[in-house]
Amino acid sequence: MTKGKIKVSSDNIFPIIKKFLYSDHEIFLRELISNAIDASKKLQTLETIGKFKGDVGDLTIKVEVDKAAKTITIKDRGVGMDEKEVEKYINDIALSGAEDFVSKYKDEADVANLIGHFGLGFYSSFMVADNVDIITKSYKKSAKAVKWSCDGSPNYTLVDDTRKERGTDVIIHVADDSTEFLEDSRIRELLNKYCKFLPVKIQFGTNEETVRDKDGNPVKDKDDKEKKITTPNIINNTSPAWKKQPSKLKDEDYKSFYRELYPMNFEEPLFQIHLNVDYPFNLTGILYFPKLKNKIEVQKDKIQLYANQVFVTDSVEGIVPDFLTLLHGVLDSPDIPLNISRSYLQNDARVKQIAGHITKKVADKLAQLFKKDRKDFESKWDDIKIFIDYGMISEDKFYDKALDFALLKNTEGKFFTFEEYLKKISKAQTDKDKKIVHLYASSIDEQHTYIQAAKNKGYDVLIMDSPLSSHLIGKLEQKMENVTFSRVDADSVDKLINKDEKQSSKLSEKQQEAIKPIIEGVIPKEKFSVTFESMSEKDAAISITQPEFSRRMKDMNELGGGGMMGMMGQMPDMYNLIVNSNHPFAGKLLKEKDKKKQKQLAKQATDLALLSQNMLKGEELTKFIERSMKLI
Ligand code: ADP
Ligand code: MG
Q1: pLDDT of 79-115, one tens digit each?
Q2: Which of 8, 242, 363, 539 has minimal Cβ neighbours within 10 Å of its Cβ?
């Protein structure tokens, strides 16, 4: 028997291991199973290259919980270790790895945000254990089995063991403060979280099934008891779809893998992108465009990140561009450095390269879908536009590519690329400054009057109703030369696209001066500014508009634009109230000599304008209805 002291520079790292990363104690299981997987894979490799000549046999890794003995055992049939290897890999290397990790991160402020915590490895078992034993026998012919034990101090013992089988058992004697891990349900939960797609079979317990004859009746044994068979309960799918060749998979395979990933999500994905790169970095995965149940419900953190099929995290922020975190699916890359904090991760050259690649692939796929079947692409547009809008706003590289497939939809439900749309409207909608004015509505119902007025003038109106529309419009105006956007209710229809066509006014300036205070007397002055415009007689007598700029600032502010907009706080709503100086109403108001009647006329007309904008509410609305009744 060998007794030894593990060489550690700090007096005792075990208390530190135990203390820190408190919430992440559960990762010990992932670490130990990862080691078992590594050992099994190594054996397969040795066989392939002819260095192992025996029978590989069944490599299933077994996880066993003994509640009475307070142990968790992880058993593998991998390469195993001989005495020298235990000394080297467990006492020296594994420990120095753990020590390194602890000394590096014990003072990290965002330790909880460190993903993966890879590198702690074998010694993470001491987060939940009083004692750990390793009983192991190397695959090498003459190797003797050994048992290593360590009680959580730097002291260990190493003795010969009678084990006959190749492979390793790691036995964790669970500490009193970690007995939650002796519950089957807890272990099953962890296996499901971390091991669902590991490449070697993992067994946790058995399933018992009743044997049935061909008619489906239970078969009885001699003692007239139902005959049962027990089958191993395998918890993982060893060859998940993302590891397969894309050419070998059908649409249905992708859909069923989606169901496997999200058993609680009953929506089918719209389409998927299969990533498969091995140079200059290794990256596989499948990203799904989900079908959104409603526009508001956009979930982040539905992408799972794996490293060689080992689950790492479902928070991929900082690893993929923000707009792609809205997608679902799996990314697997051993090349993403997992033992550095998020803030470092974002600046890592490798991570940037991977993010760039994913962005490009997503754009390529969208371009391909658009090209292949435009009708189908259009039918999916309402579901995918949030991703595309977000991508265009936040990633310049994506913006450039998206020009090939990003669509605008008009109020008649027709779709156009940006280029097509420019062609369509440039003739009728170019203003005096040579700017092509894109008109849009955010709601067909609420802005119906304005849309109609614009159409009557021969203009086309887009529908832009996503929460990101204001941001996207800002981006488009900045990127496209000589293009501006204006919401249909931003101004009177004549001024929406200012062509410098002067219409003569029936009212003189003096008459306008006389009308202004009458109107101002019946509306809250701080909210409306009253102006006059010479429109057609057929246009509304009074209309209410909200200037494009102030409305857009307000929209962006509400969405939480941050920065300057965030500092401006709640912005008041400002509107223009435009009096049509060519409408007979203006003349009538002026001619009315009875002051009381004049006021009533003004009130009725402004209320109607408010009503058409859905702005007449509460007491004002009640009074309006009463007044209107009397008039009838
Ligand atoms: P890492 O897995 O990153 O190398 P670990 O601390 O997890 O670090 O493990 C240290 C080493 O101990 C491994 O590299 C391996 O050589 C050895 N080892 C651990 N578990 C096993 C096992 N189940 N079978 C064979 N060797 C193992
Ligand atoms: Mg390991």
Answers
A1: 999 999 999 888 876 666 666 666 666 665 444 444 3
A2: 8
125 lines ligand 1 (CB under 6 A): no
Pocket lining: 116 vs ligand 1, CB cutoff 6 Å: no
Ligand 2 center–CA 509 separation, angstroms: 85
Query: Which residue puts its alpha carbon closest to atom 15 of ligand 1?
Result: 89
User: Contact at 8 Å (CB) between 273 and 365?
Assistant: yes
Q: What's 2-206's CATH class?
A: alpha beta
Give the pLDDT confidence of 465-487 residue by residue, as tens digits. Answer: 988 898 999 999 999 999 999 99
Task: Verify whether ligand 1 is closer than 6 Å to residue 81 (CB atom).
Answer: yes
How do the domains of the chain map onto residue ranges?
2-206, 241-376, 407-501, 502-632
Average pLDDT over residues 425-438: 94
* Span between the terminal Cα atoms of the chain, in Å: 108
Alpha helices in 235-348 (DSSP H): 251-261, 342-345
> Whose Cα sits closest to atom 19 in ligand 1?
35
Residue of the CA atom closest to atom 12 of ligand 1 = 89
Does this model's pTM top 0.90? no
In this structure, the residue with its CA closest to atom 5 of ligand 1 is 121
Question: How far is residue 128's CA from residue 180's CA, in Å, rounded to a whole number?
Answer: 10
- State the architecture of 407-501 in CATH terms: 3-Layer(aba) Sandwich (3.40)
Q: Assess if CATH 1.20.120.790 describes domain 502-632.
A: yes
How far is 111 from 53, CA to CA, in rounded Å? 45
Residue nearest atom 1 in ligand 1 by C-alpha distance: 121
Residue to probe by mutation, ligand 1, list 77, 122, 133, most atoms within 8 Å of CB: 122
Residue 450 CB contacts under 8 Å (≥ 6 apart), including other chains: 441, 488, 489, 493
